[in-house]
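Predict the holo structure. Ligand: flavin-adenine dinucleotide.
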Amino acid sequence: MIPGPFSYRRAASIEEAIALLQQYGGEAKVLSGGQSLIPMMKFRLAEPAVIVDINRVPGLDAIEERNGILAIGGLVREVALERSPLIRQRYPIIADTAEVIADPLVRNLATIGGNLAHGDPANDHPATMLALRAEVVARGPGGERTIPIDDFFVDTFTTALGPDEILTEIRVPAPPPRSGGAYVKFERKVGDYAVAAAAVFLVLDEAGKIAGAGIGLTNVYYKPLRAAEAENALLGQVPSGELFRAAAELAAKAADPTTDLRGPAEYKRAVARTMTFRALEAALSRAQAAS
Amino acid sequence: MEATTMLIGRSIPRMDSPQKVRGQTRYTDDLHVPGMLHARLVTAPYAHARILGVETSQAVSLPGVVAVITGRDLFPEGPEPAERARHMLARDKVIYYGQPVAVVVAETAEAAADAVEAVRIDYEPLPAVVDPVAAMRPDAPVIRPKELEGEWAEAGMHATVAGGEELDVARLPANITNAARFRRGDVERGFAEADVVIERTYRTPFVHQSYLEPHAALAVPDPTGGLTIYTCTQGQFYARNVTASTLGLHPEQVTLVPMEVGGGFGGKTVLLEPLAGALALRTGRPVKLALTRMEEFLLATPAPGAVIELKTGARKDGTITAIKARVIFDSGAYPGAPVNIALLLLGGYYRCENLDLEGYEVLTNKPGVGAYRAPGAPQATFAIEQQVDEMARALGWDPLEFRLRNASETGDPQPNGVPWPQIGLRTVLERMREHPIWRNRSSDPNEGYGVAIGGWPGGVEPCAANVRLNIDGTLSVTLGSVDITGTNTVMAMIAAEVLSQPVERIRVVTAPSNLAPYAGMSGGSKVTYTMGLAVQAAAEDARRQLLEIASAELEAAPEDLELVDGAVRVRGVPDRSITLERIAGISMTFGGKYAPVYGSGRAVITQQSPGFNGQIAHVRVDPDTGEVELLELVAIQDVGRALNPALVTGQVQGGAAQGVGWALHEGMIYDDNGQPLNPTLMDYDLPKATHLPPIQVELVELLSEVGPFGAKGVGEPPVIPTAAAIANAIADAAGVRLTELPMTPARVLEALRQRT
Ligand SMILES: Cc1cc2nc3c(=O)[nH]c(=O)nc-3n(C[C@H](O)[C@H](O)[C@H](O)COP(=O)(O)OP(=O)(O)OC[C@H]3O[C@@H](n4cnc5c(N)ncnc54)[C@H](O)[C@@H]3O)c2cc1C
């Protein structure tokens, strides 16, 4: 597998990277972990003329809490998310997600920025970020802007990022008391993209009722899907198996999977239902443990 | 046969492991020779299409490109060859998606890859036939006119099969290339007598051998018009013969150098060697051709798919009264699917008075199939072993007792009337019955247990080997069999045993085809079984010569001498001895008075020693996702004598692991136009470590009367019963019968949905 010819530019700073992207217009592609881009180039499904490598750009690899948010740099690798004590203790849903992406070899290189910027509905972080109501920070020639996650995923492999914009940071609201989230994925085999997966984030009030709910689904829609109706059905309710089954049913209804190698559409819908139900249960027990 | 042995029966590590673990082993694709060119294939984007034109001028003009060769260059006239390896490139029409149509030869692999995109080929698509049942219809698109059909012998190299009625294939529709029928008694009467009759259709897909190392061949032309070909074949003489005759050379003009095989499982026989050879002859330079993983899926030789219609009956007293089967093997675009052997196993595991077994080999627009570990057996066994299980349950019989009630024994007729040679099926079943996992099976919800058996007749082929004394007192075994399973380690053990030497003193050399004594393909579980005898005989010959020289030097009768570590000595007189190094010195020197020690051994066995394997699977079925979790897997096999139990156990575990792939994961998927949908390891699902429980192996040792030290072939049986055992466990857990492989979560969930 040999990619077509291309030229390679390594950016030393974010400004340089943006300038290079501007210079080459639509011909250039950002290279971060390379775990989606390079396979596509080797299959000659993507033949960018120029690669702009941002791996040496400083300051994009921090994981930190500040002013009530968790900020994850665009170049943070999956392995770092998986191992970060901050993520494991305070944001276990993100650790759940990172852990089930691909295999260790891929996770050593793949970045969360690339995972979101690729716009692939099969990727795992988008659903989790939808459930968490994250924000994406983008830098371009005109400076920095913040994009709510709900506006970020535009179409299959298309995001709100402009061709000369770089995703620099993901911001997640810090978890309120009595909250918890979980990501549950069903895959054909270890390391595969999801047949279907669900991210659930729940916030309970003092009485134990559901005060906030986020549900994101992976690989069952033309883009990452937030199951808004299912979320609404949970609000103000006392958690129960019956409630969760009803919400999972609504989530499955919102899904519109296509029949492919991962199974017939109806099967994927059934798996989405089961994954949502299991993620609801797991999120609830984390939320209850947090109170 | 010695009653006590020094080395035989001991688990010693494979002699080739250290180099492999350190990454030092050199494979074909690691080779670089001066002036070497790189070849890259241009493959067809249709499964069936006429080639209207091939435009190569742009590609040839690209930097670094040396030549672009087309089918017309290789076969200017006459019919296109009808065998996979001889049909190096398509000329007039393509008959499967991914078929090589042209090949670019360039100075670098990169230049070749870029030039491939510049070759323009005009196609006129033709209707493709993908489903083997549809391909049998008289009005189906024809792959190749019958009179141009070739022959293919590889399946026959894995098992020797005789008998049966010849059906007149010439009168059947064009895509049917082979048909066979085995009959006994009267099946209709058998069904009338039965208390339960079950009828089902089973389907299995193309399964790829998925060795780690893709095919590769390096052909180097020599000044006399001949070729040296370095390649990862499992059978050097076969590959040499096919290559030479394809290229119009005498066999001895082609020297085949068998390289390390990075996994073969039957799939590495002959494929790229003729084409690489043709390119080397045309360019006058060494040419390397190596496949990518995707090309492996597109154009190598996977196991055939099967459709098996099976009707069986049994009485309350546990007697199987009738087996009627129609077995259709999907051979892809070239003939060669092992339908006869499938019929023999289907109707041969159990005694049954009434049989009617019919089999067809059918062409479709898919890649031509090849051998895969026990060719034809996993398919046939998936069908018969589920159905036997279902009959047992329907009649209230314990599935193992029912099998024991009907199991074939030594001397019982196979469907072709030939009596089974010595077989250990009954003993294997008894050991399964005693196994703690079977005896203590629990009844947790959604969990279940299943059993199945599988047998393999085994192959035979004449072969020879020699053993020579080296100047340092070590000994070298030279042979022509390719080591794909650790056989060279076992050959060293056999020689060491006969010569009473530590195994470290023995080297085993796989010599190239111009030097090696004859050996057949490493297939049919026959290398140890047959080559072991040749090495044993060669070592005995060398031993006799050693004793002869020692006898003269020590002035003692040969009967009074014994071989010990590195020396020959007079029995009971330890200080009267001569080292092997000294014997070497005096027999390999100017003016020496002894002939060098050079033992040779030949072997020909005509009797097979079939191997049986029985497996117990314990599964949990997730009722919400359809996922089948394999919790435990037991494999019990009659191996004759385990010459090296660790290697034998490894073979059984590896085979069972592949069986898990057949059962739950693997299968090549084609759309209605014959385009493969999962030709990558991302989408073609091989089992991973996390899918496999520890595979518990038990070896049963019913000695073969003919194999070396009682050994039987062991490589093929363990893959055979796994899919059926898991299917039976699923039925036990969830009450549903899965009749199509692989048993994916989606299929299981669908079956569960239909049950309720
Ligand atoms: C075998 C395998 C299995 C996989 N399985 C999974 C899985 O199960 N789940 C999953 O979620 N993913 C999976 N992936 C994908 C993996 O997580 C990718 O790495 C990820 O989708 C992209 O991240 P990356 O850093 O490698 O991006 P790259 O491949 O470098 O880039 C991907 C795309 O995003 C753009 N891009 C990257 N970074 C930025 C940025 N900061 N700003 C703007 N644009 C950017 C690139 O230009 C490119 O178009 C798998 C990959 C492989 C090879």
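Residues 265-290 of chain A form the longest helix (26 residues). The CA atoms of residues 64 and 71 of chain A lie 5 Å apart.
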